[in-house]
Design a protein that fits this description.
By secondary structure, the protein is an alpha/beta fold. It is built from ten helices and twelve strands. Helix 1 crosses helix 10, helix 4 packs across helix 5 and helix 4 crosses helix 9. It binds 2'-monophosphoadenosine-5'-diphosphate.
């Protein structure tokens, strides 16, 4: 795609940013739809978020992804924030609409689409969510509206209970919190239908780690690990070996990216192109 004076600029801000997959996924998508957009990565240090927001207004950058550690820090510089992002105080997508900065969070809808597009329907089910960090919050927000019972377990219990309290108040649903310990995980898995790992356990270079002992898994469980590097985590391998349904972290990565892409372009995201670009890249690293 030739870049010209008319090319629309999108990007991602974060620190570190060198390993982001967003430019790979979005540029492949822009090219496949032959739309005149380009996507860049911007390293923005923690103290520079306000300047970065002024910069995107001044330079008329059209859309941004926001990644660690800025998802919360950007909130106060935006003009409007969607209900998900507002409740969890975490923005991963910004649209610059005629100088007004609109904030969204596509992680929750990305997780739900990843599950549903792979045949897993959390509606009315018991969902066990491991983690209460940035991604887990967005997933909990979306899935608490779908699931019959959501259990959030985290190493730091207070973060899980604060999140559960916030969502219980908002949605009046059955939501419990607890510590991420072997006994609590094991007990909760007995009647769980869907397990989501939203901790970083199992991520490279610790690819031999898993938050779940293989013998606690069962064939009728659907398992999604949001870790995508390695492409197949130990948890995913163990679950697959048992015959459980497994949804890869690449799927969540793609579907949250697809939702952001649709916000910026108002075009249907070419999910297959995005998946192929991500997988090609991940297979090389
Ligand atoms: P992300 O944006 O990917 O969600 P994050 O906000 O840093 O990243 O969240 C990381 C999650 O992984 C948290 O739930 C964290 O637990 P704590 O809140 O207790 O820190 C969890 N996590 C990270 N390393 C872990 C480990 N070794 N064991 C268990 N949980 C871990």
């Amino acid at each position: 795609m030739a870049i010209s004076g008319k090319t629309t600029v999108c990007g991602v801000i974060g620190d570190p940013i060198e390993h982001t997959l967003s430019p790979i996924i979005h540029n492949a998508a822009f090219e496949s739809l032959k739309i005149d957009y380009i996507f860049l990565a911007f390293k923005v240090r923690a103290g520079e978020v306000e300047n970065a927001m002024s910069g995107i207004r001044a330079l008329n950058v059209h859309g941004l992804n926001v990644t660690m550690p800025h998802k919360n820090a950007v909130v106060k510089y935006l003009d409007q924030i969607d209900p998900t992002a507002k409740t969890i105080a975490s923005v991963n997508t910004i649209l610059n609409k005629d100088g007004r900065l609109l904030g969204f969070n596509t992680d929750g809808v990305g997780a739900l689409n990843a599950l549903e597009q792979n045949g897993v329907k959390p509606r009315g089910k018991k969902v066990l969510l491991l983690g209460a960090g940035g991604a887990a919050k967005a997933i909990a927000y979306t899935l608490s509206q779908e699931a019959d019972h959501l259990v959030i377990l985290n190493r730091t219990t207070k973060q899980a209970s604060d999140l559960a309290d916030l969502l219980k108040q908002k949605f009046n649903k059955k939501i419990n919190a607890g510590v991420l310990s072997p006994t609590v995980i094991k007990d909760n898995l007995v009647d769980a239908n869907v397990l989501i790992n939203a901790t970083s356990v199992g991520m490279k270079p610790n690819a031999n780690q898993t938050p779940i002992e293989p013998e606690w898994l069962k064939p009728d469980l659907a398992v999604m690990d949001i870790v995508y590097n390695p492409i197949e985590t130990k948890l995913a391998k163990d679950a697959k070996a048992l015959g459980a349904t497994v949804v890869s972290g690449v799927e969540m990565l793609i579907y949250q990216g697809a939702a952001s892409f649709e916000i910026w372009t108002a075009c249907k995201a070419p999910v297959e192109v995005m998946r192929k670009a991500a997988l090609n890249h991940l297979l090389k690293v």
